[in-house]
Amino acid sequence: MDNLNTPEVVLSVRNMIKDFPIGQSSSKNSLMRAVNDVSFDLCKGEALAIVGESGSGKSTGARVLSRIYEKDGGDIIFKGQPLAEYVDEHGSLEYARQVQMIFQDPFGSLNPVHSIYHHIARPLIIHKRGDKKVIEKLVYELLELVGLFPAVETASKFPHELSGGQRQRVAIARALAVDPEVILADEPISMLDVSVRLGILNLMADLKDKHGISFMYITHDIATARYFAEKTAVMYVGHMVEWGNSDKVTQTPQHPYTQLLLSAVPEAGKSGRRELGAKKGEIPMWKPDTKGCPFAARCPRAIEACADTFPSITEIAADHFIRCHNI
Amino acid sequence: AEDIKQGGTLTVPIINTGFVENFNPYTSGGLFEGVLFEPLMVFNNMTGKVEYRLAESAEYSTDLKTITVKLRDNIKWSDGKALTAKDVAFSFTMTKSAPAFDQKAIWTSGNLESVTATDAKTIVFKLNNADSTFIWGLPKYHILPEHVWGKVAAKDLPTFTNPNPVGSGPMTDIKYLKPQQMQLCRNTNYYLENRPYIDCITYRSYNDNSQVQPALMKGEIDWGSNFIADIENTFVAADPKNNHFWYPANDAIHLYVNTKEAPFDNLDVRKALSMALDRDEIVDIAAYGYPTTNFNAGGIAELYTPYISKEVTEKYKAITQFNPEKAEQLLDDAGLKDLNDDGFRQMPNGDKVEFDINVVNGWTDWIQVVQMVTEYYEEIGIKANVKTVDWAVYDKGLKESEYKMSINWSMVATNPIEAYQAYFLTEQVGKSWHAGHGVHSPEIDTLINSFGLTNDVAKQQEILDQLQEFTAANLPFIPLFSNATWYQYRTENLVGWPSKENPYVQPVWYDGGKRNLIINNLHLK
Amino acid sequence: MNVSSLNTAKSKAPLLEINNLCVDYVSPHGIARAVNNVSLTIAPGETLGIAGESGCGKSTLAFAITRLHKAPALISNGEIIYNGRDILKMTDKELRAFRWNDVSIVFQSAMNSLNPVITIGEQLTDVIAAHKQISPKEAVAKAKELLEVVGLHGDRLKSFPHQLSGGMRQRVVIAIALALEPKLIIMDEPTTALDVVVEREILNELYDLKEQFGFSILFISHDLSLMGEIADRIGVMYAGNLIEIGDAKTVFTNPSHPYTKGLIASFPSIHGPKERLYGIPGDPVNLLKLPTGCNFQARCVDCMEICTKDDPILAELSVGYQAACHKL
Amino acid sequence: MSFLLRRLGFYFTAFLIAISFNFMLPRMMPGDPIDALFAAAQGKMDIAQMDAVREMYGFMDGSIFEQYIAYIQSVFTLDLGPSVLMFPIDVTTVVGMSLPWTMFLALGSLIVSLILGVTIGTYASYRREGFFGQFVPPLLAFISNFPYIVTALLLFYFFGLQLEILPLAYTYDPSIDPGFTWEFISSVAKHAVLPMGSMILVGIATWVFNMRNAMINVLGEDYVTMAEAKGLSSFRVMYRYAGRNAILPVATAIAMAIGFSFAGSIMTEVVFNYQGLGNILLKGIMARDYPLIQAILLILVSAVLTANFIADLLYVWLDPRISK
Amino acid sequence: MNKATTMSSDAAASAQHQKNKFKLKCHAIWIKTKAFFHGNPPAIIGVFLITMILLGALFAPVLSSHNPEKRVARPHQAPSADHILGSTRNGRDVYSQVLHGARKSLTVALFAGIIAMTIAIAVGVTSGYLGGKVDEWMNFITNVFLVFPQLPLLIVLAAFLGQVGSLVITVLLGVTSWPWGARVIRSQTMAIRNKEFIISAEAMGESKIRIILVEILPNLISIVFGGFLGTVIYAMGAEAGLGILGLGDATEVSWGSMLYWAQVSSSLYTGAWWEMLVPAAALALTGGALALINMSIDQVSNPKLKTGPHMKLWKRLNRETMKSRGLL
Ligand SMILES: Nc1ncnc2c1ncn2[C@@H]1O[C@H](COP(=O)(O)OP(=O)(O)OP(=O)(O)O)[C@@H](O)[C@H]1O
Ligand SMILES: Nc1ncnc2c1ncn2[C@@H]1O[C@H](COP(=O)(O)OP(=O)(O)OP(=O)(O)O)[C@@H](O)[C@H]1O
Ligand SMILES: [Mg+2]
Ligand SMILES: [Mg+2]
């Protein structure tokens, strides 16, 4: 972990596990493991992209980090202190302040009955950022920071009066309101118009670079992951299967799943049928006692061990890790 | 008369939920008394006569401790078996083992010692104490065939439904029974020749008065015993030639006053409250003018005309006359004055005088009456409110004298003494609806109890006169009017009805004896 | 009724020809023109892609072709000629016969276009039964065949939509679209809701089917890379206008209109050099508050005087290549 | 299956709660049947006799708990004791006599108004912009808000009393013997016209609105558009594709409506002297006939629960997404 | 004091600002109101009727010609100049009674609606938002109440409670009519609960009670209001029904008691139709008007119920285009 230019680690996750009960009964044997053995470090001013297909546990991971869900195992260390220590009212509020979340759906993440002002002022009020006047000023500053001009007018609007891109900017402004250290962005652009996506990505990039905010960027668009994030982790069925430096992961993918993912990405000019490097197979439901490699059933490179042994981590290059038996 | 035609059917409305196969006269809600079962005798309060039915005569011994009843000759049950004194004695003794059937509590009250059949025609009642009023209860007991009822175990009596009933009344043949209609036809063994003239009676089931009205208007029934709104314009007008009504006076309606509470403890206040009322207007407006206005403060009304003391009526006449000025003056004198100019009077100590008049929710004619009463009271500066309560509350209120004022009726019975028993006997307090007003005295108890000790009509009347005087002088309740006996009849098919012109009996359907007389008198036109 | 426009001249007779089509939405706040004066053609066997951001009128155009509009949409002008007949002038009966037989449509989200309470089988067979005199048995056999064509097992006929995954549902919808072997299939963002791997599977299927049946496709998407891969020609729409149309390669590699340029530049590539992209600044226009002149003026980097006054018209830049911009 | 089991558990518990409530109700309220009897006799009854009568009707004391156990037993053995109102006839018999008629009336009118309402509602949603869709639902809203009893009385007055074309009261002409004869059936039908008619008139609006709203929600769904695009006939689109889904929310409302329908039938039965449970219930209440009231409420609760259960089954059948 | 002077100019500015804001808000409300009524005849008729009825009730003492609780005429006088809607059997003025009766009936209905909706909101939102065991229990209770035959129960309760003044009826109706609303609100809350704005409020550290009251509740306004109107309509009918059955307090002047008296005085048979029909019509009008308002709220809050003034325009335009294509 210790590189030469050791950047400060803000958020460190070790072997995080999250289980969900299946069906209505909550007995032990009917759990599904949405996130299994996930570890990573998020450094100051850096972005970690999490990519993976739908249902691979990306959002769940982020939600555990933002304490919407309780983790079922592993350690989360925020600024050198385990998450478990941010417990009392003050502590948890403090954590809530420093780790903010931006949601996928700009339509769903703003309450339609409240004005934009309310949305941005609330966190300021909760975290006692000053009296009315101060807060008002802060709100307008924040709106301008995310590129919503004129701020006063925008503040008095209601969510339905804004376009998707504007709404997502509001969401970002709200996340920024209380000077967070970490922003967990859960597919922040997937619901946006193609023409405004880049604007949001660039805005986030500026925040990262200029304000030193760390991002966890969740997406299923591997191209934007590479564009925005320094590091990328590929998830499959709750597991990180390949991670490391974004360029390495996207340019020289080593894990068969990453390769499959990249080969499926549509590319202009490459017309015609393109065989996928994977067998057709059901995506498994991972249970606490499931054995083997999650990708085994679809893996073209599967060997015997894949069926019953969970692959361990291999560092195949500097800052490039995979979980695979058959490297 | 020879020209009377036999045949025809009488259709009457029954207010109930439907007919069921239960011919036990004690549990079938009075459906069959006087129809399937014949009483020994009927005390006709309209004529003051005793109409002997199964009995031929009934005599008290001189010590008033023995009653000897003789049956008619050759009377038979509807199944052809002879009806003997043994049956009668059985019928009375049976109610000893089935206390619920003991309608007048002859056994439970302990006065009846024995009932025995001394021969085939003679029944002897032996009493422990002299009681000349005892005999009035006898018609309440049904004469039942021992050969049927004797086989029923005592504990099963209450639930015995008496299938295939055997009776001695005019109509004993159940033609059919459907939930909403049933028909009984003539008893071929009836003891009177050619009687009844009519062949059958049809009972039709109705929910309430409001359904009897259209049925009467449409001519579906012959005899109504129900309140009919605006009868001239609805019922009579529908067929003036055949549709008639006659509303003779029935029980007296009073406003009961709780004399234990101020300011009602003041007799003058009670008098004033009585004088404030325009009874004619109340009867006219609130009750369509059907009831008979009661100007008699003696506690009994028109129904008992022969017993009413003219003297008492005359002496206390002023109390029942509409005289608001006098009423106000009486109140002023009693110290009830409007001290704070709110239009209503206060007690001398400044407490406000405001009271509720209890009336049962749903008894609309009375509600209207009470509404008018409050209006009259308002005119003399007394604040009274109509309080409609559930009857359970009303019932409890009257019995336990938890009221300030409550509208209530009086007993209807063979003799007015029974009404006075309910009004004044100290032992009735807490039990009877009529005794909660708070006016009682040992002397009056003795006076009332002395009634049964004599058989002398003149002496009895003397007692009644004294009771009337006592009532009028103390005014425990304010007389309003006599209820009407609701009675509508149609002469399209049948004639022979009691009427104003021929008032041979009080025309109530709900009395087995009275209706027995009427059924026996009806015939085809 | 005749082919009027010069710029639609083609070597082959077009399968579908749209002339000056205008579609309006009558809303409480005014009339929004969601498709404005659009003219284009689709040749037999051709895949025409329509790209553009959300709300630019792509779906509206697709709906117009099958005349599926309900209130408050209104096809206010133009003609849509299919095999010489104007669809807009068909009677209800003709329309019913025309639908699906000649043109079928795959809706934007397969999740919602299958009735959740009716079996896959019935939803497949009833379209066959509605258009063909065929016994129920044969219809079922045909339905099975169709499912197998799209790579699903015939047993799935008895399933209800919720028992299938998103990708499977999408295949079912495609199977239904193929049921009557139409000449043209309209695909409105058929893969947007799916992840890349499933999307790829569906695309592969589509390539095979196209080879097998030879239908034309009107492919709607906002994903230009996908479009560049699948389409023969691409049309780009902005605020109801067709602003650029031409063969896929040219549009993708050498776009003429600033909007198209910006759009293409909005997609970071996985393999290319990693540099900051600038995309298109600003927000999409509101159809109810269109400016005079070019609709794109507010976001255009090279906006000129004339752009604020005149509406640019679609001009032929080269054979079969048109764009609408004052700069060209 | 587990879904149904859970529901079954729910029904059973609900049933227990309901019957316990039934048990408590009379015991919390003032007055008892004998007082009522006494009041009804208007003084013709001797006070000394009241205790004997009370005993006769079987109102014995005992700890509340014992009474409760006895009551629960009686519920499950269906031996509910004699009615007070119709002593000594068993409550079961009394109820059995009227239950079929109430079911006929309540269910009959429910079914007819449901069918009419759904049809009208579907059409009204289809012709939402037209005259029908704009005027018929509001009109029905006004009609259904006319106090039910007044509607019934007016019908009664005009058709029964003034025009004399329909009978005034009863379930059938009492001079006819019940049986599978044309005479009897036609008499029943004739007697049902007014009571049912009035209930239908009042009840129909609910279904029109329910169906209309459900339809309008469904008509905007993609699968309806898809069905249209497939070139299916509009009949098939309306009834198979849209109606099939729109009926789902309506189906849950049906079970609820059973309770309301019964309530409606109380008034109808009173006005038209129809021989049903509602009529008896009202009389029973006046007479404080607890066994009868309890029995009727019991039936009612069971009926509503059964209806709900049937609705659940129906729902599972109608909506394949539920069955799990 | 000191502070005040320095702040005064600021305060003035902010007051000005506030004023403007207020003006803007008023304007916005006005626009919304106008939009609500425009081309929404049910709303216009409904609100007009209700306004009239409410005004009538409010100004009953001024408008009525007689004391409604006093005998002011002979029994059953036909409508005349002195008693414009006739008199009752008890000699009361029907017109004055209808006006005063509206007060009682509407108050009962209104408060029953408020009670029911308050319980419904409390149960529905809590149960829907908190979920888990709380939800299970609350849902169970709701369902039990829901399947309980309400009106018969109400009749039994009313009868047993003895004196049932309007207060008792209000409470009875209130506490028995909530389950339906609770269920609807619960399901809506569950839909909202998982919306991201709630999750983000939670993550932000908002208190539960604030989330319920400030974040969730305002989103439910239209259902709550719809449910409220529904309950009011129902309560009004039920009050009248209980009154007619004689289970209400016959001495209070309400529409229910008016009908009761009309019925016991056999006013239909005696030809005094006014005594019965006037309160009946009042009930029908009020209920109908509320139903209309409910219907029009539906139309506004449910975007799928596309109606409004623009639909008229659409209809006209559609007819024109259809005509021009020879389809009409
Ligand atoms: N609250 C929950 N209860 C039970 N299961 C859940 C819950 N949330 C998520 N899951 C399950 O956990 C798995 C991972 O879900 P998650 O939302 O994290 O995926 P994702 O990678 O974010 O997918 P997407 O790209 O669709 O957002 C899925 O199988 C999902 O069904
Ligand atoms: N029913 C409608 N009523 C009013 N306006 C509508 C309606 N449907 C669509 N519009 C408007 O018409 C325009 C074009 O919509 P359309 O659905 O064709 O866009 P699209 O290009 O398919 O977008 P997307 O990529 O989001 O599917 C949009 O601005 C939209 O707001
Ligand atoms: Mg996610
Ligand atoms: Mg679209």
UniProtKB/TrEMBL annotation, chain A:
Domain spans labelled ABC transporter: 11-262
Pfam families for the chain: ABC_tran (PF00005), oligo_HPY (PF08352)
One function term, GO molecular function aspect: ATP binding
The entry's keywords: ATP-binding, Nucleotide-binding, Transport
Keyword Hydrolase: no
Tagged with keyword Nucleotide-binding: yes
PANTHER family with a match to the protein in the record: ABC TRANSPORTER, ATP-BINDING PROTEIN (PTHR43776:SF8), TRANSPORT ATP-BINDING PROTEIN (PTHR43776)
Protein name: ABC transporter ATP-binding protein
Organism: Psychromonas marina
TrEMBL record, chain C:
GO molecular function: ATP binding
Keyword Transmembrane on entry: no
Pfam families to which the protein is assigned, alphabetical: ABC_tran, oligo_HPY
Ranges for domain ABC transporter: 16-264
Nucleotide-binding keyword on record: yes
Keywords: ATP-binding, Nucleotide-binding, Transport
PROSITE patterns, A to Z: ABC_TRANSPORTER_1, ABC_TRANSPORTER_2
UniProt xrefs under InterPro entries: AAA+_ATPase, ABC_transporter-like_ATP-bd, ABC_transporter-like_CS, Oligopep_ABC_C, P-loop_NTPase
Transmembrane region(s): none
Superkingdom of source: Bacteria
Gene3D superfamilies, A to Z: P-loop containing nucleotide triphosphate hydrolases
Protein's name in the database: Peptide ABC transporter ATP-binding protein
Origin species: Psychromonas marina
Lineage of the organism: Bacteria, Pseudomonadati, Pseudomonadota, Gammaproteobacteria, Alteromonadales
Automatic annotation (TrEMBL), chain D:
Subcellular location: Cell membrane
Keywords of this entry: Membrane, Transmembrane, Transmembrane helix, Transport
Membrane-related topology note: Multi-pass membrane protein
Record-annotated membrane-spanning stretches: 6-25, 101-126, 138-159, 192-209, 246-272, 292-318
Highest taxon of source: Bacteria
Every ABC transmembrane type-1 domain range: 99-311
Keyword field contains Transport: yes
Xref: PROSITE patterns: ABC_TM1 (PS50928)
Protein family (similarity comment): Belongs to the binding-protein-dependent transport system permease family.
Family annotation (PANTHER family): OLIGOPEPTIDE TRANSPORT SYSTEM PERMEASE PROTEIN (PTHR43376:SF1)
Protein name: Peptide ABC transporter permease
Lineage of the organism: Bacteria, Pseudomonadati, Pseudomonadota, Gammaproteobacteria, Alteromonadales
Automatic annotation (TrEMBL), chain E:
Entry-linked Pfam families: BPD_transp_1 (PF00528), OppC_N (PF12911)
Location in or out of the cell: Cell membrane
UniProt-listed InterPro entries: BP-dependent_transpt_permease (IPR050366), MetI-like (IPR000515), MetI-like_sf (IPR035906), OppC_N (IPR025966)
Topological relation to the membrane, as annotated: Multi-pass membrane protein
Record's keyword terms, sorted: Cell membrane, Membrane, Transmembrane, Transmembrane helix, Transport
CDD domains: TM_PBP2 (cd06261)
Protein family per UniProt: Belongs to the binding-protein-dependent transport system permease family.
Protein name: Peptide ABC transporter permease
Organism of derivation: Psychromonas marina
